[in-house]
Write a structure and sequence with these properties.
By secondary structure, the protein is mainly α. The chain has one domain: MFS general substrate transporter like domains (Growth Hormone, Chain: A, Up-down Bundle), CATH 1.20.1250. It is built from 20 helices and no strands.
Length: 434
């Protein structure tokens, strides 16, 4: 049988798994991203209204990440234990309510409190989503499935930039939070109504498609591995995967937190133009996660090597993201700066798809814990990166000097990927499952 014929045969059983990823998991992640990103766009307006300092803003913007990061591993275990359907529904309910009441904050302390609680609410989203994809997709399709999840995550900043800026200009910043909170409640209801933890239980799932998913996961244990987190601490791969994500998010945190402020304060963009231009790098990232998902699955099919489909792609992403960010910070031409920022954040997509596919490759029955551990390190960088950036701007008197310091973390990330072997599931988890 030809390669094309085999691919058609593989796709023949049904498409329900793709509809669930595209119409349920993608949208709930998109709305979560809107809720998370709105305050970044509103940050210059909030700072002016409440007269917060740059350092105060750095703590306000990162308060979310403290609780989000600390609860990642427990949330990953709970997602495996109770299922992503239940965990994601209740988490969405909590974070949507907190988004809606954000405008009730009256000062620095109350803003930080609400943002911290929002991080706690959203902590279950990513581990639950990764576990859901692992249950619904065989290994040969996971890179592409992960690209849907990542694409929805990064569509948030694309949409949040112009939408939030427009709402601020016409109605004030508070109405952005009211609207996004209501939208979250609606999509959470849809998730609970239509998603199932076991693909075979879904009313739209055909027997052939359910069998194909089960056959593709036959070698993987789906029940939680007892003591997975403690066992993982003895694995070099467990540590390398987590810490390299810290390095990646150190770079990405500039775009997540400071890009709008950078464009307005250092490059003198207006609020209206900032809303549009701050979304462009996210468009590049959005496109690249889909390109990378298709590319990684193609490499895996052609070579049969999980390592080849993950590690080289991730290393190239680190290198390009770092070098393009340094170059962007040092060019005086606005158009070239924007091109380089798009190249830099787009390259992050190469590494992001590789990371979340690798968590499923390495984790098997402990995927929730591995994804939670990895995301803990990423969100630790989400705290450290913006705060470090604020201090570097203060110490060096230059955004360019601060961006150079952040970009150098990419070299560490490249070295750490040399210790990641997705083709070898973490031995401690396999022994525990036996």
């Amino acid at each position: 049988m030809s390669g094309q014929g085999k691919a058609e045969q593989d796709a023949a059983p049904g498409r329900t798994r793709w509809w669930m990823a595209t119409l349920l998991l993608g949208p709930i992640t998109f709305v979560m991203s809107l809720d998370r990103t709105a305050i970044v766009i509103a940050a210059p307006t909030i700072q002016s209204e409440y007269h917060f300092t740059l350092v105060q803003m750095s703590f306000l913007l990162t308060a979310f990440s403290w609780t989000y990061a600390l609860l990642q591993v427990p949330s990953g275990w709970l997602a495996e234990r109770f299922g992503p359907r239940r965990m994601l529904y209740w988490a969405n309910l909590l974070w949507s309510i907190l988004t809606g009441i954000t405008p009730l904050a009256t000062g620095f302390g109350s803003f930080v409190l609400i943002r911290g609680l929002l991080g706690a609410g959203q902590s279950a989203d990513w581990p639950s989503s990764v576990v859901a994809l692992k249950r619904w997709f065989p290994p040969k399709e996971r890179a592409k499935a992960n690209s849907i999840l990542l694409g929805a995550l990064y569509l948030g900043p694309i949409a949040a930039g112009p939408i939030t800026a427009a709402v601020i200009l016409h109605f004030g910043w508070r109405w952005a939070f009211y609207g996004f909170g209501i939208l979250g409640l609606l999509i959470g209801f849809a998730w609970w109504s239509w998603f199932r933890d076991n693909p075979a239980d879904h009313p739209m799932m055909g027997a052939d498609e359910a069998r194909m998913i089960a056959d593709g996961q036959a070698a993987e244990r789906s029940a939680p591995v007892r003591g997975a987190f403690v066992r993982g601490l003895g694995s070099v791969q467990f540590w390398a995967l987590g810490v390299q994500y810290f390095c990646l998010v150190m770079i990405q945190s500039f775009y997540t937190t400071w890009l709008p402020t950078y464009l307005m304060r250092d490059r003198h963009f207006s609020l209206a133009s900032m809303g549009f231009f701050s979304s462009l790098p996210w468009v590049a990232l959005f496109v690249m996660v889909f390109v990378t998902g298709a590319l990684s699955d193609r490499i895996l099919r052609r070579t049969g090597s999980v390592w080849a489909a993950r590690v080289p792609v991730a290393i190239v992403g680190f290198a390009v993201a770092s070098l393009a960010l340094i170059a962007a910070s040092r060019t005086p031409q606005i158009w070239l700066m924007m091109v380089l920022l798009c190249v830099s954040l787009g390259a992050v997509g190469l590494t992001q798809v590789s990371i979340w596919s690798a968590t499923q490759d390495l984790g098997r029955g402990a995927t929730g814990v591995v994804s939670g551990w990895t995301n803990f390190w990423g969100n630790a960088a989400g705290v450290a990166g913006p705060v470090l950036m604020a201090y570097l701007v203060h110490w060096t008197g230059s955004w360019a000097g601060a961006l150079l310091g952040i970009a150098l973390s990419g070299a560490v990330g490249i070295v750490l990927w040399l210790f990641v072997h997705p083709e070898r599931p973490i031995a401690a988890f396999q022994n525990a499952a036996s």
